[in-house]
Amino acid sequence: MYAGNVGTGFNSKEIEKLLDRLRPLRRDVSPFREVPKMPKVRRSDVVWVEPKLVVEVEFAEWTHDGRLRAPSYKGMREDKSAEEVRREEPITDVVKKGSRELKLSNLDKVFFPVERITKGDLLEYYRAVAPVLLPQLKERPFTMVRWPDGIEGKKFFQKDAPSHMPEWIPRFRTEVSTRGSPRTKKWVNFPVVNDELALLWMVNMGCIDMNTWYSRIDRPERPDWVLFDLDPSPDVGFKETVQVALLVKQALDAFGLVGFPKTSSAEGMHILVPVERRYTYADTRQFAEIVAGAIARTHRGLATTEWTKAKRRGVLIDANQNGEGKTIASAYSVRPRPGAPVSTPLRWSEVNEDLDPLSFTMPVVLERVRKLGDLYAGVLTTRQRLTDALKALSS
């Protein structure tokens, strides 16, 4: 398929490099079924080549006749074969999956004013990242955190599935504690986001990040992981957060446990420790509390377990986030913060003083997934026992 000419983005050295690669691929006739019309180019001046090489091109949009508008050359793509290349299709206002149909609205509404990121941009990102994101969401009670007017507007939480939510999105009915005093119980019908269409419906409703329980609906009282939630106080920065993350890793290594780090937003980090589904939330919270307390005692001023903000100094290791009904912004979620950072899975080798959580934008994360695969797949497949660690810590 012919998509236009690219005339910018080259220097003389790059042009020579491309010519060296193209000359051996020369052919006498056009590889297209129909010879494309190229304005201001004579057919006799065209040199045809075999469609073997792949380059990356940045462009503003597709024109009405299927051409690239304002294309600019960005470089060769040695990692991709020509057979893998598919035309990027912008999201439309109607998405169909089988007999189901989802109508999207206000695609041009700006959700991140400084970056000019629209709801349509978010929908395109979530559609692209769905293959690695959905396994993190499946079969978990989902809490809607809605930003209908973007990050500079008001947000609101919605646990109960709205009455207008499509019937093809599953619900999970369970009894939960209220936040009021005294606490009471109430029944809630939580949405369950199991497929791409349900995910896009949530984004269309103004959900910027995806928030789920740590446990699944078949055994809601049994979490799949321990969470170490690292939250820096105003007196420290991300550099100290990284230092505390590495201290948590040292503690986990001592017990033979594996943790999976990710950025949480612009400042904090999450470390998930997958466990067998035999432990209660009380067990996972106890483990996190003991580890956090030991680190805080031996690294005063750097790490803390003080939950009261006015008294807090250093990086909070928040064990209290381990509890039934608590939610986590999943891996690959765009966070509702300036810069639109994505909660990004990391390799431990990347957790160092050079780590910049704001660098993980939507395009960067999609490229990481392409190159590195799903770094959080192990959270769902690794099963570890806390029994020995709890015994050793409690003795």
What CATH architecture of the largest domain would you give?
Alpha-Beta Complex
CATH superfamily of the largest domain: DNA primase, PRIM domain
Unreliable spans are none
Q: How far apart lie the N and C ends?
A: 69 Å
Summing up helix and strand content along with how strands pair, one would put the structural category as: alpha+beta
CATH-defined topology of the largest domain: DNA primase, PRIM domain
Domain count, please report it.
Answer: 2
- Outline the biggest β-sheet: 5 strands, mixed
Descriptors:
8 helices; DNA primase, PRIM domain; 2 domains; four-stranded antiparallel beta sheet; five-stranded mixed beta sheet; 25% helix; 20% strand; alpha+beta; 395 residues; 21 strands; OB fold (Dihydrolipoamide Acetyltransferase, E2P)
Helices, strands, pairings?
Blueprint: H1 12-22, E1 26-27, E2 48-49, E3 55-58, E4 61-62, E5 68-69, E6 72-76, E7 94-97, E8 100-103, E9 110-112, E10 117-118, H2 119-137, E11 142-146, E12 156-158, E13 171-177, E14 185-191, H3 196-204, E15 211-212, E16 225-232, H4 238-254, E17 260-263, E18 269-274, H5 281-298, E19 303-304, E20 315-318, E21 328-329, H6 362-372, H7 377-381, H8 387-394
Parallel strand pairs: 19-20
Antiparallel strand pairs: 1-2, 3-6, 4-5, 7-8, 9-10, 11-12, 11-15, 13-14, 15-21, 16-18, 16-20, 17-18
Helix pairs in contact: 2-3, 2-6, 5-8
